[in-house]
Design a protein that fits this description.
heterotrimer; A mainly alpha (about 170); B alpha/beta (about 300); C alpha+beta (about 260); A: about 170 residues; mainly alpha; B: about 300 residues; alpha/beta; Glutathione S-transferase Yfyf (Class Pi), Chain A, domain 2; Rossmann fold; binds iron/sulfur cluster; binds FE2/S2 (inorganic) cluster
């Protein structure tokens, strides 16, 4: 459980300067990283989402100070819709739709490189897993085992199928 | 000496070369590798969510099987199996509450508390066989072959199951050295190969695979060794595609580390099983006069 | 709390002998008094159920009658065949005659007898999490997880052997975390094993050829034309192998059909 003060911190009290002066350059429009102003208020912050992500991941997501080391180290970040740092920031701000709507957590390879490098000791791979699961648990599949071409199944090592289905199916 | 080992599903089919080379090499060194009598898939990836215990059941069940048959130690070859089994083992050792829930769920099995030790074959070679013994048994030295060690993720991350302390990167180099090769350090040796994303997001995986191969090649490697069938699929089987898309300039021979072990111990093709590798990898060793094809023993 | 209404057996059903003991069971949540010692299937018929589905061989081999039940005060689910499981007091039960499970389409004549081909037809195999619910659910005590593991490991012969007692009842699939159709996969495995891997029984093949070439046609014709009395006579007089003779020690006098 998060402390009572969490929602207040999520409002930007912890990072007031950033929250106000970087009017949220991390929205994505159709796969392109694009800067767009967004409004943050008590109404837009999904406290329950923040709480769920924190519980599932076991991480204090408010520790993130937006250094971007994670994305710099991430092998998949080149093809990620939203950079890991931005996922963290949006999660802090309870932007559930933006976090869950981003393909980023489904592009993550669970390699733990971010976790190994985060100066704040956040196990970001776990945050990614939490974000993934919150979608998958709505009975959503990000890959359909029945639709993987027979040739691909025949060719891939079993561990590829097992791990992919574990991470991307409900 | 009898040693229990956990092969994992892929080593029974597509990565038979990883297994056969290890088992025959150990036989040559007088170590009897005995496969667990009963085992299931390890699950390949560790579940990272705090409330998701069901996905720990697969690796824990394997550890129970090992314990039930009286093994104190289980050696693994595949890095993914190693990582999954070792992390599940730590969880069962350290988290009392989760341990109880998992044991209760598996009420049909013996309760498990982390009794078994999970050891990767590289560490087994280092700690139990020993580099000096290995060196003394080499019959066909790699003769200065420039070999890059690719660890990938699962042998080194997270730190609590890494086969070496952080900043290591030694064990595979020592292994190459013991076989008479020259280890080549390269920047991408612990960069993730894209793992299972080769299925879901192949473009993202291919990009990083290309970077890894280029990094090893430009560091002067003539060959690359690894210990995971998924890394092998990505880094070896995908090379043709990468060459044609211009992501890498030339192919790089890729082997399971156990295959070079078998070759250096002077074992024949039925041990090194190069028949399951890419043509270029076979050619490279053949050009160096190693016995890699049936009936062509040097 | 009012006591549950007691259903009394009436009509065209087994007649309860005088003084026979009955026990309460709950079928799909409703209480019935049924004679003890009956199987679930007979008890349900006694209580007035008529099986259109959910019964076949009545001998524990067709897999039509799988039943899931709970015992009083026990959280656990138990599984049994209705035709084989004897009723217990206060058991809560429901039959699951059919469970939807993915069944792949293939041509057994054309299939390649290798693990990859099986994997390609059933990629959901790789969603197994080794929860073992399948093994716990199997009324035939098949080690379902073990055959699924063997299939993933590409060991067709082992999977065929472990799954041999499967009667396709579907209970495993009903409990599967990974939504696998275990029994259909195992059936494919056994088909492949039987057709391509298992050594052929040559003596059987020889006999089939003999039959096909008409060797027994005349004898069968004669039998068909025979009247009942004569048939009965020769049936009763037929030569029979005595019990427990050592292998090869006995030969019939009439060897014309061997
Ligand atoms: S490395 Fe850690 S602190 Fe830095 S942005 Fe990423 S999660 Fe935040
Ligand atoms: S765990 Fe995921 S987010 Fe973190 S570095 Fe690896 S691929 Fe990137
Ligand atoms: S394996 Fe499945 S289908 Fe076969 S008998 Fe057991 S529960 Fe029924
Ligand atoms: S019930 Fe399904 S997921 Fe569980 S062990 Fe059996 S096949 Fe695997
Ligand atoms: S009716 Fe056939 S198994 Fe029960």
């Amino acid at each position: 459980m998060l402390p009572e003060t969490a929602p207040v911190r999520a409002c930007g009290l912890v990072y007031p300067a950033r929250a106000l002066t970087e009017p949220l350059c991390f929205l994505n429009v159709k796969g392109k990283r694009k800067n767009m102003p967004i409004e943050i208020s008590e109404k837009t912050i999904k406290h329950e989402f923040i709480e769920k992500v924190s519980q599932l991941s076991g991480q204090d997501i408010f520790k993130c100070f937006q250094c971007g080391t994670c994305g710099g180290a991430c092998p998949m970040s080149g093809q990620m819709e939203t950079l890991p740092r931005r996922i963290m920031r949006m999660a802090q701000l309870g932007m559930e739709e933006n976090v869950s709507g981003s393909e980023t957590s489904f592009t993550c390879a669970s390699c733990h490189t971010c976790s190994a490098n985060c100066p704040r000791g956040i196990d970001l791979a776990r945050v990614m897993e939490a974000v993934r699961l919150l979608t998958l648990r709505k009975n959503v599949n990000k890959i359909n085992p029945s639709k993987v071409p027979a040739e691909t199944v025949r060719e891939l090592p079993q561990i590829a199928l097992v791990s992919c289905f574990r991470k991307l199916t409900s | 000496m009898k040693v229990s080992y956990y092969p994992g599903c892929t080593l029974k089919t597509k990565a038979k070369n990883l297994e056969d080379a290890a088992v025959s090499s150990m036989a040559a060194l007088g170590v009897d590798f005995q496969e667990l009598q009963r085992w299931n898939c390890c699950g390949a990836v560790h579940s990272l969510a705090d409330d998701d215990l069901i996905h720990h059941v697969a690796p824990v069940r394997d550890l129970v099987r090992a314990m039930d048959q009286g093994s104190r130690q289980v050696v693994t070859l595949c890095s993914m199996c190693y990582n999954t089994l070792a992390r599940a083992n730590l969880l069962m050792r350290n988290d009392e509450v989760k341990r109880k829930t998992i044991n209760d769920f598996m009420s049909e099995e013996t309760d498990y508390h982390g009794e078994v030790e999970v050891v990767h074959f590289l560490n087994f070679l280092r700690d139990t066989v020993g580099w000096d013994t290995l060196r003394s048994r080499v019959k066909a030295s790699l003769n200065g072959m420039k070999v890059a060690s690719y660890y990938g993720c699962t042998l080194v991350r997270p730190a609590d199951v890494a086969i070496e302390p952080a900043g290591g990167g030694k064990v595979m180099n020592e292994f190459i050295d013991a076989l008479g090769g020259s280890p080549v350090d390269f920047a991408a040796s612990t960069v993730c190969c894209g793992s299972y994303q080769i299925l879901a997001h192949p473009e993202a995986a291919l990009e990083v695979i290309g970077r890894i191969i280029e990094s090893a090649s430009s560091a002067g490697a003539e060959a690359l060794i690894l210990s995971c069938p998924l890394c092998e699929y990505n880094l070896a089987k995908k090379q043709a595609e990468l060459v044609s898309s211009g992501k890498i300039s030339k192919k790089l021979p890729v082997y399971y580390f156990t295959q070079l072990l078998a070759i250096a111990l002077g074992l024949g093709p039925e041990a090194s099983r190069l028949d399951l590798n890419e043509a270029g990898s076979v050619e490279f060793l053949k050009a160096k006069n190693f016995p890699v094809e049936s009936g062509a023993r040097a | 709390m009012s006591a549950p209404v007691k259903q009394v057996a009436t009509g065209d059903r087994a007649i309860l002998p005088e003084g026979a003991k009955t026990i309460p069971i709950f079928v799909m949540g409703k209480r019935y008094e049924v004679p003890e010692t009956l199987t679930i299937m007979k008890a349900m018929e006694y209580a007035g159920f008529k099986f259109l589905r959910g019964a076949g061989c009545r001998g524990g081999i067709c897999g039509a009658c799988p039943t899931v039940y709970r015992r009083e005060g026990d959280y656990k689910l138990y599984f049994g065949l209705a035709c084989q499981t004897v009723v217990e007091p206060n058991m809560y039960l429901a039959q699951i005659p059919f469970y939807p499970a993915n069944r792949a389409v293939y041509d057994i004549e054309k299939i390649e007898p290798v693990a990859d081909a099986i994997h390609a037809l059933y990629p959901e195999l790789f969603r197994c999490v080794a929860c073992n619910n399948c093994t716990k659910a199997c009324p035939m005590h098949v080690e379902v997880l073990d055959y699924i593991s063997a299939i993933k490991q590409g060991d067709i012969a082992r999977a065929a052997r472990i799954s041999f007692d499967c009667i396709q009842c579907g209970m495993c699939a009903s409990r599967c975390m990974g939504e696998l159709p275990q029994y259909h996969i195992a059936q494919l495995v056994r088909r492949i094993y039987g057709k391509y891997i298992q050594p052929k029984a040559e003596h059987l093949q020889k006999r089939v050829t003999q039959i096909e070439s008409g060797r027994y046609d005349k004898a069968l014709d004669e039998l068909q034309k025979m009247d009942h009395a004569r048939l009965e006579k020769i049936y009763k007089e037929r030569e029979r192998e005595p019990d427990m003779v050592p292998l090869g020690a006995w030969m019939p006098k009439d060897t014309q059909y061997l």
